Amino acid sequence: MSDAAGRSGEPVRGRSVRFRLLAIALLPMLVILPLLLGVAIYRWNAKFDATLISKVNGDLTIAHQYLARILEKTGVQLRALSLSARFHEVLAPDARGSLQDLLDETRKEIGLDFLYLTNDRGDVLASSPPLQHRPRSDWPIIMSALSGQVPATGVDIFGNDELAAISPALAERARLDLVPTPNAVPTDRSTETRGMVVHAASRAMLPDGGAAALVGGTLLNQNLEFIDTINDLVYRAASLPEGSQGTATLFLDDVRISTNVRLFEGRRALGTRVSAAVRSAVLGEGRTWLDSAFVVNDWYISAYEPLVDSYGKRVGMLYVGFLEKPFSEAKYQTLMIIIAAFIAITAATVPIFLRWASSIFMPLERVTATITEVERGNLSARTKMPVLGDEIGRVAVHLDSLLDQIQERDRQLREWNEELNVRVRERTRDLEHANLKLEATTKQLIMSEKLAAIGEITAGVAHEINNPIAVMQGNLDVIRSVFGADADKAKVEFRLLDEQIHRISQIVTKLLQFARPEEYAGYVERHAPASVISDCLPLVQHLLNKTEIAVVRDDRANRLVLMNRNELQQVLVNLIVNAIHAMPEGGTLTLRSFDAERDGHQGVAIEVADTGIGMSAEVIEKIFDPFYTTKRRQGTGLGLSISQTLIKRQGGQITAESRVGSGSTFTVWLPEAS
Question: Which ranges does the record mark as transmembrane (predicted)?
Answer without folding.
Answer: 21-44, 335-354
